Amino acid sequence: QYKFRDLTVEELKNVNETYPNFTFSMNTYTFKDGSQKDLLNFSGTVPVKYGNSYNIPIHLWILDSHPFAPPICFLKPTVNMGISVGKHVDAHGRIYLPYLQNWSHPKSTVIGLIKEMIAKFEEELPLYSLSSSDAARQSELLSYIAKITAGETDMKSKSKIGGGKNEGCFNKITVVGAGDLGIACVLAVAAKGAADKVVLLDLSEGAAKGGTMDLEIFALPNVEISKDFSASADSKVVVLTVNFLGNAQTYLDVIQSNVDLFRGIIPAISHYSQNTVLLVASHPVEVMTYVSWKLSAFPKSRVIGVGANLDTERFQYILTNTLKAQVLAKDAWIIGEQGEDKVPSWTSCNLVANQTEAMAAHNSREEVANRAMEVLKGKGQRSWSVGLSVADLTDSILKDKRKVHSVSTLAKGCCNINSEVFISLPCILGTNGVIEMVKLEEDPLVQEKLQSTAGSIHDLQQQLKL
């Protein structure tokens, strides 16, 4: 079946010599469009040094046009591992690297691919260990949801009492996308009790499957499942969780496919909920928030991305509870781009008597921040943890809390950024989205990093067809 069998066999021999732990076999690969093909694949681990040494399990599928087409690469996590979604890994464990995007025979080889994979994984681990505390948080959330279904929280009573509410006071949220993240958002928002009604807009083809079917079976109060955009009408917040699951070969192809998906979603959502706040959780969040803003023509204040809200909450928690730096935590933020390029920053500084003391205080703070960032790196983002973050943001918006969150917002004009890009910055959120951007300390290094991030995002956006 392989068009260039000899070249393929020769290369795989080289892989076997370099990485003898890999096992080879022929198996059926199912593409996202449902088509299948028998392909050569191999599984094994690659050594990664990230403080300690780790063996990262991977699974590579060799297409029948190899070596003129790049392999399809996945992580292969064990049951006690979680996937850290980032620039090079999606929620399904699929691996995207510049090496794959720029694949060209004979310059590109599987050995070279694995070497780049190791280098990128040493910058940001793609997997993390599922700790007992993670399991405990998950259990706590599910327990709370069980109480909701039994009517033990104030959400059900609010529904009964609010039966006579007028339409203008009705808090309705729509979650677009019925994948793992979409369902996690529905459960977390329902658990938070901020919304009077939650609509899950399932855009998948065919009958309800998996989690969507389970939601229908074990019906939660005030949760509706629909395939019709009209069900989203008059939503106060619309959460976008959809991601392309097709067989795109490059990272740019994946993003372009997401853009194409949004072209069919955003105008319909905007039509039925003209005053809604769009909250984007699709990947990559900075680019897809920009795309949502462009396609909706909404004011910039009403289009935000989940950005670094989860990382910031974790960062502040680590500073307060792990490093016992409560004073620093209240002014600490994670900003910039979600993933490996996130940056710690501050919204105020300690008042000190002179420049020497100021420098000492700054160095001390930076040392604590670096320690907190090391702890933060070990935490991945599961669907349910992002769902909890989404619930936190929607709660602040619906209840007009005027609380500060680090979210993806239009950064043009901030930190000498002149392009239309969305990056995470601390913002006050209320009923109409972003009320005000909170001023950060003027740190030249932080500004330089933000400008670099903005430049990279802008370059990527320029390659997209809107």
From TrEMBL:
GO BP, one annotated term: protein transport
Listed GO MF terms: L-lactate dehydrogenase (NAD+) activity
InterPro entries: L-lactate/malate_DH (IPR001557), Lactate/malate_DH_C (IPR022383), Lactate/malate_DH_N (IPR001236), Lactate_DH/Glyco_Ohase_4_C (IPR015955), NAD(P)-bd_dom_sf (IPR036291), UBQ-conjugating_enzyme/RWD (IPR016135), UEV_N (IPR008883)
Pfam families: Ldh_1_C (PF02866), Ldh_1_N (PF00056), UEV (PF05743)
Domain of life: Eukaryota
Catalytic activity: (S)-lactate + NAD(+) = pyruvate + NADH + H(+)
CDD domains hit by this protein: LDH_1, UEV_TSG101-like
Chain ranges of the UEV domain: 1-131
Biological function: Interconverts simultaneously and stereospecifically pyruvate and lactate with concomitant interconversion of NADH and NAD(+).
Protein name, per record: Ubiquitin-conjugating enzyme E2 variant 3
